[in-house]
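Why do we care about 3D structure at all? Because function follows from shape, and shape follows, mostly, from sequence. That is the central idea of this module. The next example makes it concrete: a single protein chain, its amino acid sequence, and then its structure expressed as tokens.
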Amino acid sequence: MDKKYTVLIVDDAEHNIELMSEVLKDNYNIMTAHTGTEALEMMHGANPPDVVLLDMLMPKPDGYDVLQTMNGDEKLRMMPVVVVTSDSDPSARQRSYDLGAVDFVSRGEELGTIRSRVKSVLRMCELEKMRRENERLQREITSEKRLSALMDNLPGGVAIIETNGKTAECSYYNSKLLRLFKMNSDRFSMQFIMPTRPKWLNTFIEKAKTSDSFTFTFSIGDQNSSADRQWIRVTAGSMPSSERMRETPIFDVGCGDIKEIYCVFLDINAEKRQELRAEQNDKQLRENQTRLETVIDKAPGGLSFSQRGSDGRFHTEFVNRGLADMLGYVSCEECMANISKNPSLGVSTEDINAIRAKIAALPETGGEFKYVLKCISHKREELWLSMRCQITCGGDGKKNLYAFTTDITKEKSFEDELRAAAYFDPLTGLFNRHAFMRNARRVIDDNPLTQFSLMLLNIGSFKVVNDLLGRDVGDKVLITIADAVREVFAGRGVFARLFADNFMVLTPYSERGVHPQTILDAVQKAVSESGLLTHDIQYYIGVYVINDRSISVENMADRASIACRTITGSYHEHIAYYDEKMRLNMLEEQQICDESRCALENGEFCVYYQPVYGIKAKRYTSAEALVRWNHPIKGMISPGKFVSVFEKNGFIAELDLYVLEQVCKFMKRRRDEGKSDFPISVNISRRSL
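And the structure:
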């Protein structure tokens, strides 16, 4: 981004503001507000923020009130808001979206996620601004009347297209063009502003870069149905700048040289059908060979003509300048000479045989085929080429081969990069979550007689490593662990880095597999020998022995995760096997979390006072406040079941405050009744301190 955007962080907790500011300060200007009122004032200020990170759980006005106010304010309505909150209410996400939030981030997610979300939201807003600007320009552009009467009576569709070499706009088109494309006006115009342009328009822009006049053929519609496939030839020529009638360009200043190109689009379906008639095509090609060679030699891409000889092989008789340049030759003559000596120069035997097989599979009258191959150029560079070949049968009975070759080396490299990004973790090189789920499912299904186990490896308190030693060291630790996992499971399982510090492995649950302790030992040894850490860290493995193969791999992974969570934080247990009791405990904990807030509001938490007897004083000297949950259905619930759950999700702080408040009210009642003060001790969770 050229502009440094401003982010407003709204949170009543100072430490949350500090954490998010630390993550975002390098890339954004930071504004902070501790209350909803202060935040709204900043949004109305002289320098309003570009995006707002809003906590929902604040004193009134809380985050929901702020969203409600912004939604009713014409100035603030379009300001993007990303909700960052620890609100555990399941409806919080939907409620935030209903009030206008564009994204929702739970407090438990990685802080790095917030930076990515902010960047994504700002990009989305910029794209929306661009879309609106394009729509405004499109509405303002009116079809000019010049040549309209003539163009409407020309055969085929007529259009005026302006291009700067990167984008294109259509300033005029006649009704015949819409009928040819089988589109209405809106759909045709959308082709020029869609993020992914149609292939023909990309070809048009590329050709316009290098030539003032050109012709090419393309097809639209269903490519697999000859009945629904429409073939079109466009003949285009640009007008010299001195003769252009447009006074104001449709592109912004600075976009580069603009060409105004007049185009005629012709329906060539009948011509395409004629191409299948080999003898007629061959005669037509020969009659125009001299004229076509001049045009073809200047055309972009590689073109060649070969004829089958008496030995049954095709001999190249013509190559254009484009093909010679593509293959690294100084001249067409040098290219022809080298190809004549060795037709398969730089091409693998496998590709040569595949091309011959495609030619042999065509009917005697000829046909068309496509092929992508890798070759070595005359300059010893690796190339990926896409070939489109047409075989025709001449009047003399000889077969002719016309080939159009395109250099797709860059596209192939980009495709490989996309494939790697889709299936592999960029840091460790292991499978990512998506690839693991697919491959694990395949392995399980392909081996119905083998029992497998799914293991989740988690690093305890890995965030501390990043905080103390830096993210670079943390990344090196993850790479070291990945290498250890790769070495242990080579050929004996499917393994991946799911996310953050979580690794997952599928391995046979037998002697052919790997025991969890072996993984722990290998990982601990590798990290220790690397010398990256100054302190010991704990590793935990949750194991799910796959007894039900019908469930999804996602569900299997969840069960391994449940087992891992039961021992996370322990210094003595590092391996846990999933059983049904774990799932029931997890469901019970979830139910406790879901009902906790309503229970607090309904007064279901009761405070009891356990007296303390002083031996020396021989009387009761104080009391200890104890909290119990009097559930309307389950009855009395022991603190042993809910306190640890509340400490995990942070609700314990609210419960502690509630108990303190009840104790204070109790002592106030004693004073009002004229009774003496009675010391009462209250247990406070360390999470509240």
